[in-house]
Protein backbone atom coordinates (compact mmCIF):
# COMPACT_ATOMS: atom_id res chain seq x y z
CA UNK A 1 0.00 0.00 0.00
CA UNK A 2 1.44 3.33 -1.05
CA UNK A 3 2.07 6.05 1.48
CA UNK A 4 -0.29 8.95 1.04
CA UNK A 5 0.94 12.22 2.49
CA UNK A 6 -1.61 13.80 4.77
CA UNK A 7 -2.45 17.37 3.91
CA UNK A 8 -1.51 19.70 6.74
CA UNK A 9 -4.31 21.99 7.79
CA UNK A 10 -3.54 25.18 9.64
CA UNK A 11 -5.26 26.02 12.89
CA UNK A 12 -4.80 29.78 12.59
CA UNK A 13 -4.59 32.17 9.66
CA UNK A 14 -3.23 35.72 9.67
CA UNK A 15 -5.33 38.67 8.56
CA UNK A 16 -3.18 38.92 5.42
CA UNK A 17 -3.98 35.32 4.49
CA UNK A 18 -7.69 35.87 5.10
CA UNK A 19 -7.73 39.06 3.05
CA UNK A 20 -5.99 37.22 0.17
CA UNK A 21 -8.63 34.46 0.31
CA UNK A 22 -11.35 37.00 -0.42
CA UNK A 23 -9.26 39.43 -2.46
CA UNK A 24 -10.03 42.37 -0.16
CA UNK A 25 -7.89 44.73 1.91
CA UNK A 26 -7.00 43.72 5.48
CA UNK A 27 -8.62 46.95 6.65
CA UNK A 28 -11.98 45.67 5.39
CA UNK A 29 -11.61 42.50 7.46
CA UNK A 30 -10.77 44.62 10.53
CA UNK A 31 -13.80 46.83 9.82
CA UNK A 32 -16.11 43.81 9.54
CA UNK A 33 -14.65 42.50 12.79
CA UNK A 34 -15.73 45.71 14.52
CA UNK A 35 -19.18 45.70 12.87
CA UNK A 36 -20.15 42.02 13.19
CA UNK A 37 -20.11 40.14 16.49
CA UNK A 38 -19.61 36.83 14.66
CA UNK A 39 -15.97 37.52 13.81
CA UNK A 40 -13.87 37.10 16.93
CA UNK A 41 -10.26 36.22 16.02
CA UNK A 42 -7.82 35.45 18.78
CA UNK A 43 -4.93 37.82 19.27
CA UNK A 44 -1.43 36.81 20.20
CA UNK A 45 0.87 38.73 22.57
CA UNK A 46 1.86 41.11 19.80
CA UNK A 47 -1.79 41.83 19.00
CA UNK A 48 -1.82 40.01 15.66
CA UNK A 49 -5.16 38.51 14.76
CA UNK A 50 -5.33 34.73 14.41
CA UNK A 51 -8.39 33.56 12.49
CA UNK A 52 -9.78 30.04 12.90
CA UNK A 53 -11.73 28.10 10.26
CA UNK A 54 -14.93 29.17 12.00
CA UNK A 55 -13.92 32.84 11.77
CA UNK A 56 -13.14 32.39 8.07
CA UNK A 57 -16.56 30.80 7.53
CA UNK A 58 -18.17 33.83 9.16
CA UNK A 59 -16.12 36.17 6.96
CA UNK A 60 -17.18 34.11 3.93
CA UNK A 61 -20.85 34.51 4.88
CA UNK A 62 -20.49 38.27 5.36
CA UNK A 63 -18.53 38.57 2.10
CA UNK A 64 -21.29 36.69 0.28
CA UNK A 65 -24.02 38.93 1.64
CA UNK A 66 -22.22 42.26 1.27
CA UNK A 67 -20.05 41.85 -1.82
CA UNK A 68 -21.87 39.22 -3.88
CA UNK A 69 -25.50 39.87 -2.97
CA UNK A 70 -25.16 43.63 -2.49
CA UNK A 71 -26.62 43.87 1.02
CA UNK A 72 -25.91 46.90 3.16
CA UNK A 73 -24.11 46.25 6.42
CA UNK A 74 -27.34 46.67 8.35
CA UNK A 75 -29.16 44.38 5.94
CA UNK A 76 -26.47 41.73 6.35
CA UNK A 77 -26.66 42.05 10.14
CA UNK A 78 -30.43 41.64 10.04
CA UNK A 79 -30.17 38.64 7.72
CA UNK A 80 -27.62 36.94 9.97
CA UNK A 81 -29.61 37.73 13.09
CA UNK A 82 -32.87 36.36 11.67
CA UNK A 83 -31.79 33.25 9.77
CA UNK A 84 -28.05 32.71 9.53
CA UNK A 85 -28.38 28.97 8.92
CA UNK A 86 -30.52 29.53 5.82
CA UNK A 87 -27.92 31.96 4.47
CA UNK A 88 -25.15 29.41 5.00
CA UNK A 89 -27.23 26.66 3.39
CA UNK A 90 -27.83 28.80 0.30
CA UNK A 91 -24.13 29.66 0.11
CA UNK A 92 -23.16 25.99 0.28
CA UNK A 93 -25.67 25.18 -2.45
CA UNK A 94 -24.31 27.94 -4.69
CA UNK A 95 -20.72 26.81 -4.07
CA UNK A 96 -21.53 23.20 -4.93
CA UNK A 97 -23.34 24.29 -8.11
CA UNK A 98 -20.29 26.35 -9.12
CA UNK A 99 -18.05 23.32 -8.60
CA UNK A 100 -20.38 21.14 -10.69
CA UNK A 101 -20.44 23.75 -13.43
CA UNK A 102 -16.66 23.99 -13.41
CA UNK A 103 -16.41 20.22 -13.69
CA UNK A 104 -18.88 20.14 -16.58
CA UNK A 105 -17.05 22.94 -18.43
CA UNK A 106 -13.78 21.10 -17.97
CA UNK A 107 -15.38 17.89 -19.20
CA UNK A 108 -16.80 19.66 -22.26
CA UNK A 109 -13.36 21.06 -23.14
CA UNK A 110 -11.85 17.59 -23.00
CA UNK A 111 -14.40 16.17 -25.42
What does the model show?
- By secondary structure, the protein is mostly helical.
- Helix content is 65%, strand content 4%.
- It has four helices and two strands, in the order H-H-E-E-H-H.
- A two-stranded antiparallel ribbon has the order 1-2.
- The longest helix is centred in the last third of the chain and has 38 residues.
Keywords:
111 residues, mainly alpha, two-stranded antiparallel ribbon, 4 helices
Question: Layout of SSEs?
Answer:
Blueprint: H1 15-22, H2 26-35, E1 42-43, E2 49-50, H3 53-68, H4 73-110
Antiparallel strand pairs: 1-2
Helix pairs in contact: 1-2, 3-4
Helix content: 55-70%
The helix count comes to 4
- Quick one: overall form? globular
Structural class call reads mainly alpha
Measure the end-to-end span.
Answer: 33 Å
Tell how many strands the DSSP assignment holds. Answer: 2
Helix and strand element order: HHEEHH
* C-alpha-based Rg, rounded: 17 Å
Neighbour order of strands in the largest sheet = 1-2
| Unreliable spans | none
Major β-sheet annotation: 2 strands, antiparallel
Q: What is the overall pLDDT average? A: 86
Proportion of residues in β-strands: under 5%
Task: Summarize the model shown.
The chain is mainly α and 111 residues long. Helices cover 65% and strands 4% of the residues.
Amino acid sequence: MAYKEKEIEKLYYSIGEVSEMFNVAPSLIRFWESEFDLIKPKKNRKGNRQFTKEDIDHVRTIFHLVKEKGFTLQGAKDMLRNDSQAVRDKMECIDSLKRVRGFLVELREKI
